Structure of TetR family transcriptional regulator:
Amino acid sequence: METSKRRRSNTRARLLEGAVEVFAERGFHGASVEDICERAGFTRGAFYSNFASKDELVLALFQATTDRLLEQIEALLPELATQPGTLLDAVLGLLDETAPDERQWHLISTEFTLHALRDPEAARALNQQRAMFRDSLTKLVEQIVETSGLTLSVPAERFVRLVIALHEGARSQSLLEPRELPPGELERTFLPMVLEAVSRPSR
Amino acid sequence: METSKRRRSNTRARLLEGAVEVFAERGFHGASVEDICERAGFTRGAFYSNFASKDELVLALFQATTDRLLEQIEALLPELATQPGTLLDAVLGLLDETAPDERQWHLISTEFTLHALRDPEAARALNQQRAMFRDSLTKLVEQIVETSGLTLSVPAERFVRLVIALHEGARSQSLLEPRELPPGELERTFLPMVLEAVSRPSR
């Protein structure tokens, strides 16, 4: 028999899925809590027993997406310890695969970022979430760099910020012109050059 | 006496200025043609004799911004011919200065890009505008590279796409966390490394 806890987690997951679809169609501001409930097949009561607000739901989406990405990178670590050269390939491959629908995810995350630029409370919550993700990625990069017997000439945190900035900017271009710029092409072309430029053997 | 043409161009400029303010406050979707007219002190008639739609007005803003940037870069060319090493400094300096209010410009251009991802007609117009800008920048990069006696190992167009992607992604991070990431820092740190990695002496 399904426990109450599992039922709750299932409700939450279905609300998140419904929200992704509704946000992608109507935008963050255009989608109401009612729209999300209708899509997921739940009442407003079910929504508010899981999320305090639409903002909180989007932040939970960010959390789920970044958790999944970090888990996938961590799963690669043992392999990377023996073949450090594949780090960038592995990470770049993950970036492509992580969001099953890059377009939907780009719309939602960009819209919420714009919302945060006008709403200090949303900005605080988003920045906290992004900082946690960056910190986790930074620790992974430091760990991999050390395992590979390398030292970086820039803080690992700056390299992580570069990867995120380039990926987000390139994704926008690829979504606008998929034929002119295949997804991941700028990252695959330029990130290895940067990594080469900033790494030196430790000893 | 002011000619009709000059009066028209003045009306257009004031509508554009008003629109920048209203879009930044209320967003592209939240701002109506009425809001823009009220802010600029004109009637709807004046608006529609200058722009067919809100979309057309935003595209005119893109055009004005990119024209200004290209003019500034072209003005630097004579200096660059004698001191090619300063190319990147000059371009990066311009990126900082170009949009007098980076925040407003980021909000408007990002919102219109999201709109274009949902509206094929807006996408066509935006892509055409962005392609013209990229082409102009690409020609400038090719010209500067040649003047400097260098050859690029990647197409100049790809390097231009990288600069735009990194700048747009980094701007989003700097606007969210200005103290953690000063504007332009990622570009100044990493673009010189990439330029170094892709350029070789021609002969």
Observations:
- DSSP finds nine helices and two strands in chain B.
